[in-house]
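Progress against Task 2.4 (sequence-to-structure conversion) is shown through the following example record, which the project officer requested during the mid-term review.
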Amino acid sequence: MKKPLDVSALYQSCDSSLFVFHTTNELEPLEHPVGQERALDAIDFGTKIAQDGYNIFAMGPSGSGKHSVVMSYLEQKAGNEPAPSDWCYVNNFKDPRSPIAIELPPGKALPFRDNIDELIELLKTVLPAVFESSGYTNEREALNQKFMDEQTDIFRHLQEEAIKRDVQMNISSSSRITFVPVIDGKVLSPEEFKAIKGEKKEKIANDMSEFEGLVKEALRKITELNKVHQKELNSLNKKITKEAVHSIIDEVRQRYAENEKIKNYLNEMEKDIVRHVQDFLVKPEEMGLPSFMMEFYTSPFERYKVNLFISHEQENNAPVIYEDNPVHQNLIGRIEHASHMGALVTNFSMIKPGALHKANGGYLVLDARKLLMKPFAYEELKRVLRAKELRIESLAKQYAFVSTTTLEPEPIPLDIKVVLVGERYLYYILYHYDPEFKELFKVTADFEDELHRNEENHLLYARMIGTIAKRHDLLALTPQATARVIEQCSRDVSDAYKLSTHLHTLADLLKEADFWAQKNTHKVIEAEDIEQTLAAQKARVNRVQLKLYEQIDEGMIMIDVSGSKVGQINALTFISLGGHEFGIPSRISATTRIGKGEIIDIQRKVELGGPIHSKGVMILSAYLGSRYAADLPLSIAASLVFEQTYGRVEGDSASSTELYALLSSLSGIPIKQNIAVTGSVNQFGEVQPVGGINEKVEGFFDICMHHDPKASYGVIIPEANVKHLMLKNEVLVAAKEGKFSIYAVKNIDEGITILTGVKAGEMDDKGEYPATSVNGKVLTRLKELSQKAKEYAHGKKK
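Structure tokens generated for the chain above:
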């Protein structure tokens, strides 16, 4: 019979003598986590290649530190790259609905904005002074006098014509003309005019009619003169304004002579100022607006301001931006609106940048899961990456939610590397279902979950532990504490020869150890602080586990750990609940009888068994048929069930256990109840590895120790799982004392021999097994059932 594993195989310790430091403070910090060279090489490639579509998807389990690694690497790389261009939005004087985007060298947008502000402030002072100067006043007065003289000449001519026609003409201060007939120097009243008869009255009427025509012609001339006068005044104002404005704007124009867009903008600004010079001459308080209207007053000078859209005046390198909330407007920017007199209004100054604008010329990091959860965000990201330009459009406009007038800012060229950070399943889903994804994210940075254990990596891991401790301002660790952390990280990946690269779990362990060390007034983190941390972590989450143990102790869950029984066995099961993983035994029972070769999985029948579990049960019938009934009918009916399970059972890790129960039921040989089993089996009877091996073994150990700590117990595991063993110290102590044995088996024959104490038996040349062996008794029983089935069928036919 196979011997139990040696204690040395149950736990691979880390030799603290390997570490020559007194505390981890003496170790040189690591720039990047160990074991991620492949992912870093992929990121390096993705950031250096300049072709389209080579954006990056950094994938790995949540908490593996991929986000911090990506950010750290990009920030380091961006530190050696130049800052990108600044961008401003300015008013489009020809079409205010289409603001103009202006590109400037890095750090030059702020001075440009200040230059324009200073220009406007200067014009606010200069223009009123120009219009109050004696030169302007004299020219204006000359034009006014010319107009008055020409108007006076027209009125003088009218007066002369009135005298010729015996008409008295009166002119009011508002240039309103009235006239009445005169006879012999006397103004006729309406009654006197009515009293006149004959030709005299007709002559007076004709004279009045002719004079009325002259008056109309005179008024027309005065109107034309007034128009000409106003044009001359406007021309004078424009000439004076342009002379003042041109010289002032020209100074700014010279500073940006190489920027064609700014020159054109300044030219249009000059024309607009000349057209709206009155805005510079009249102050708001002089406009005579009612007080309640003043709060709605909008300064006309807002249209001359510069929207400082993206500015790098305090940066000397390429930007690295992480957008934590990648909603549509946070990605591509937005156009804000303000309420004005009951309406929503906007202008170019309300255009706000998004993360893509801020990262333009550098790197943008996004959480893939968050991006996919935000409506329209992922599609918009793909659109701008394809178009290679940033066009700010509201969702309301794109999807016709509303039909209000809004802005259409000039798009900005896009030059960026986008890094999506997410779990592997997101990458595979996107790659499979989205044909555009593989064209836009051609670089995959796959972060490792684990790292091989060897002396070199132990030393590197110690440096990583020290780096995390320094980064979070924690106490340093002793070599013994460092070794204990390494051992725990090996247990975290359930592999004695590997280490976990899950940085968040490691950092949490060190933070909590720092808490307990300080509580214990230790100056450094010692091994006992690590042990206390692990115990406290378990105590916070193991309530359900202890409740199940309590139910087993009380007999509510029926588990036998002593004696022997036919067709009954203890299976090692694994439960993961809210991040806490633990093992607990479960009784499996099997019954056999005459039938047609069917093995009934009761779990599957009641829809409590998953497909993988059902697959494992189906393999059992294949094994029985191929091994024992190759030349005869398999005339059995068997039932298998996990006793007292009320939830879904999934996985094939109990398939070997179920097979042992079947063999016991067929052979009639009882199984030792103090030994529990785990492992899947294939059609050839080979025992295959399973997951959660440490938790399963420890779960059965805890139950056994609760039952009778002085008795002897054991477990059977697949031989391939030996390398995964990192068992707790209590199990190691019990194993040394011979109270708890762990057997590693390759096949079913080795396992059934340990469980029954009876040899499995090997087939001879005639295809027979020893009669007293387990296999011999199974074969005998199957032959009996086959014969009975044959006799029964023959008798039924008769």
